[in-house]
């Protein structure tokens, strides 16, 4: 059922079943609600006609990215709804193709995780369509288990400008483009207006800047009612700080991603703004405090609206207090905001026809129907594109699905998608570089080092790692040319074929 009907049910208001949803899904949805879970489902949406292609005897395993709420995917009604929608609107165009859907890394319900996905692919039992996020992306890129997409993009004349540049750049490797963004997980800020009112503080203006934000957050913070209240809950973790330094004109890495620039004047200036706020208890890392729970409990007045969490926020908060969305404050040089790094990609070892898998990827990532159904109606997750018309439709869908969002500034999600920054990974030694970066941030938070010293140490360590790794990569490439291998390293025998 859609969020609007679930919320009306929660309030004891009867609602008519929507056309096109099977009765068992509605019954299961009511059971999920009574058990404390909240999910969304809606009537089917049509898709543009495509040629019907017979593909006899092919069974696909499809990982999906889920940012809604609920229990385990296998027992949640969204599982049946996803399968029904894919069957009606995609698989029916390919007679003989069957599929199983599971969740990928980064989903809010239970999922097998990024490392498990890699292991299952190598073992020949992995998904054909892969959903992965965060640090799983460079790990998959390193294994060459993601199929380059450039030839398909060129053949179909796809305009990649429809996707956020901050995410797309991180999905482009030496082998080419290896994935497409799976959802528009941008990060404006939630704000607890009830708390601001209680504290007698003014609401931020739409064009507020980082200095005004620091003053307001400091006024919010302190010991209140026996607990510490933070002004803001923001991202502060390795690979995730491009949103901050870009606002001051900096970058974590150079364009080649082999030289760490954290010790540049712009980066130092950015951290000189944020780190004292952490020391003073004004800001808390999102990695230490769940944003949705922190806003609800009054432990934070502002919090990053990250990771596709709108569905969880709506389910948890309802109308229990006044809240809204505000843009990230303007920074010294340029607008900046975070976009969660997440992709859909094609398993390069799959035995299914690559043209079939591309058609599936295109249906999920490029055609708007899946974005408006799975992401918008079921999960309240934003679309993966920056096309204004698509965002306007998404806002209309959310406001009709959840009527009390009529007065919420959902447009700030779309605004952040236009200029937001994705995660920043080193090219050759992503995991080791992230560890060095995190070590610097931990030292900063613990006041073991000052900003210039911590960032200088991290930059030197990471650049040295990249220099050593690039030499190893060059030697490996020479060896591969001298002793080439053909085919996958492990014979792949796909289940169901």
Notable characteristics:
497 residues, three-stranded antiparallel beta sheet, 42% helix, 19 helices, alpha/beta, globular, disordered N terminus, six-stranded mixed beta sheet
Short characterization:
This protein is of the alpha/beta class and 497 residues long. The protein has helices at 3-10, 23-34, 77-89, 114-122, 136-143, 150-155, 165-168, 193-199, 210-220, 242-247, 265-279, 291-297, 310-317, 354-365, 368-378, 388-401, 411-419, 430-445, 451-482, and strands at residues 58-64, 97-103, 129-133, 172-173, 176-177, 180-181, 189-192, 222-224, 227-234, 283-285, 300-304, 323-326, 342-346.
The portion of residues assigned to helices is: 40-55%
Q: In whole angstroms, how far apart are the ends?
A: 34 Å
Q: Provide the low-confidence segments as ranges.
A: 1-50, 477-497
- Say how many strands there are: 13
Largest sheet: 6 strands, mixed
Structural class: alpha/beta
Q: Count of helical segments?
A: 19
Shape: globular
Nearest-integer average pLDDT:
83
Radius of gyration: 23 Å
Strand content: 5-15%
